[in-house]
Every structure is written in C-alpha cells, then in structure tokens.
Amino acid sequence: MNLEAELTLTRTAFTVEVALAAAEGSTLVLLGPNGSGKTTVLSCLAGILTPERGRVLLGGEALLDTAVGIDVPPQRRPIGVLFQDGLLFPHLSAVENAAFPLTARGIAKEEARARSRGLLERLGFPIARSTARPGALSGGEAQRVALARALVTEPQLLLLDEPTSALDVRSRNDLRPVIGRALSSFPGVRVLITHDPVEAMTLGDRLVVIEDGRISQAGTVEELRRAPRTSYVAELIGVNVFRGALVADGGTWRIETPDGSVFVADPGLAAGASAIGVLPPGEIELHLERPPEGSAQNVLAGTVEAIAIDGHRARVRVACHPPVVAEVTLASAERLALRPGDELWASFKAVGIDVEPA
C-alpha cells in the first residue's frame, strides 16, 4: 500500500511543486519553515485542495489524477487526518468526536462509541472524561481525541499536520510518545507535517525538506546530517555547512563560499568543483583573544550573535565570515562569560570538515 504523489499548485508567494513516495509501514516527514508549503501538500493529499496539475496514488489506485479528471472527495478517501488544532466538534463529547467518522458511515452509535472508547484508552485518554466536551479538555487530551478520530476508521493513509505545535512544552513532551506508538502500530502509510526537528527525527523514517514550495533535500537523518544541501537543512540537523567552489593553492585546499572561505583537507576532488563542507559544531573552539598558530588552520574573527542552552551544552552562533555555530560545554560558556555582541575568535581544523561534491 505505497503512496505516490506529484503535485503542482500556485500559491500567493510561490508555486508548490513536489513529488513524494512513501512505503507501507513507514513514516514520511515533511519538514520545513512556516509558510513553505507543507500544509498545502497535506491538503492536496487529503482532498481538501485540488492542485492545478497532479496525481495521488495509494496502493496503485488513483485518488487524484488531474489529467483524466479523477478527484475522489475527502470523505471517500481511505485517509485519516489529525489537524494542528484538532478541529473537534464543540457540541459533541470526547467519545462522540472520536466516533463521528463511524457514525457518519452508518455504524450504530453504541458500537461506534465502544470502538472509540477502546481506542481512546489505548491512546492514554482518561476514560472518566469521555463525556467531556472539547472546551473542558486540555490541549493534550483534545489531541488524543483528534488522533483517535483519525484512526478509528482504520484508514490506509494517516496524515498528521503539526500535531503538537499548539501545545505547551509539557503537553508536547507527553504527547510525542503517544504519537510515536500510534505511528509504529499503524500498518498503512504515515505522513507527518512539522517544522520541529526533534519531532521529525524522533518520529520519522525518512525526511523531505520543503523550502519555498520545492523539495530542497530528502533522505534519512544520517543522510541529511552527512551532507546538508542548504543552510536551513544544516541548521535543522545541527551542523555547519560551507557551500562553494574548491580552490587549490600551494598544497592547501579551501572552499570559497559567497561569505568567506574555509581551509579543508585534500578532498580528492578537482579544483574548481562545487563542494559542500560539513563541520560539526563541537569541532569549533572559541577564544576571547586570537589563538596562537597551531593545528587549527581556520581562525575566524567575529561576534556572538546568539546563545542557546541545550541540556549541558551551549550553542553559540558566531557572526563571522563565513558564519558558524559552535557547541561548547556550559562550563566553557560560563568561563568565557559570553554575551551577544561580544567579540571573539572561532577556530577549527581543516580535517574536521567533511567535504562532499555538491
């Protein structure tokens, strides 16, 4: 029961043009910044929007094919959808909301509610609150009800649109494992829309990055980490990326980017070739004064642009040429007493940069 889709749809700011494929039993994550076209793609898969050109095949059966005029309406597609804000019916109870797709198909109310209660219980929803209406539910409870509603008909394709983005941090952390278990036990194709890299990397088997309506990169987390193709992908994965032309000069090599150059080890590529250099942020050392000559060929002067604390580490964004993000221990950050706007030096070895052909 594979999914294949090719979609072209003009929006106000740009044209969404993507081609997707996902296998049965796998979770495909569409990842990208807000307004990049992710939800537009999901709406086309669900039948809520009709693209100007395109087709959607599920298990070889056409749900959409604009070339021959096929466009199966949303209610007849074997699809379950979990929307960002749940979109629960305010006048129905939690169990009635979860059961609605069944009752809409003519299944007796008692049977539909019994099946929905069992599903809600498996999703960790407190059954004692099954008669509560959406206005009385917490954000996490409401999303559990919305997830149950998406699953209750046992669809062949499950679509989740930013399922945790409207929740607070605690509710988000509580709900993610629930979603993960639901995805892993769902036998069909799963498509998750998110702009959260943690959600994407923990819940997805394969990532498709969409920027300005186009796919900028696709692959596993490791494939994206090994060779990010855009600065957005690099920032998501948490690495530095230098893209430019390789220059050989007196036995040394460097990548010339539009915003400066970095020295690299012999990449085994031809001079003049387009290349991508990937540098983990932990390879960068920060100094308050220019470090003495040593093994670090790359020494860049800059200023602290931003500091983010992540557990026991600090990620420091340095405005230099080219810009970099360093990762240091909290103890190092405190010792350096770094603040946004401080001047400093960033150093890293040429051999620390992994070079791939662009």
Give an account of the 3D structure.
- With 358 residues, the chain is an alpha+beta fold.
- It is 25% helix and 35% strand.
- The protein has helices spanning 38-46, 94-104, 109-122, 139-151, 169-185, 197-203, 221-226, 231-237, 330-336, and strands at 3-10, 15-22, 27-31, 53-58, 61-65, 70-71, 79-82, 157-161, 189-194, 206-211, 214-219, 240-249, 252-257, 260-264, 274-279, 285-287, 298-310, 313-319, 324-329, 343-348, 354-357.
- It has a 6-stranded mixed beta sheet, sandwiched between helices. Strands 2-1-4-5-6 form a 5-stranded antiparallel beta sheet, covered by helices on one side. A 5-stranded antiparallel beta sheet has the order 14-13-12-15-21.
- A hairpin with a 4-residue loop joins strand 1 (3-10) and strand 2 (15-22).
- Helix 2 (94-104) runs parallel beside helix 4 (139-151) and helix 4 (139-151) runs parallel beside helix 5 (169-185).
- The chain is elongated and about 80 Å long.
- The mean pLDDT is 91.
Global geometry: elongated
Oligomer: single chain
Low-confidence runs of at least 5 consecutive residues: none
Q: Tally of extended strands?
A: 21
Total number of helices: 9
Mean pLDDT: 91
Q: Find the structural class using helix and strand composition.
A: alpha+beta
- Radius of gyration from the CA trace? 24 Å
Write the element-wise H/E pattern from the N-terminal end onward. Answer: EEEHEEEEHHHEHEHEEHHEEEEEEEEHEE
Proportion of strand residues: 35-45%
Helix content: 25-40%
Spatial separation of the terminal alpha carbons: 34 Å
Strand order, biggest sheet?
7-8-9-3-10-11
| Main β-sheet description | 6 strands, mixed
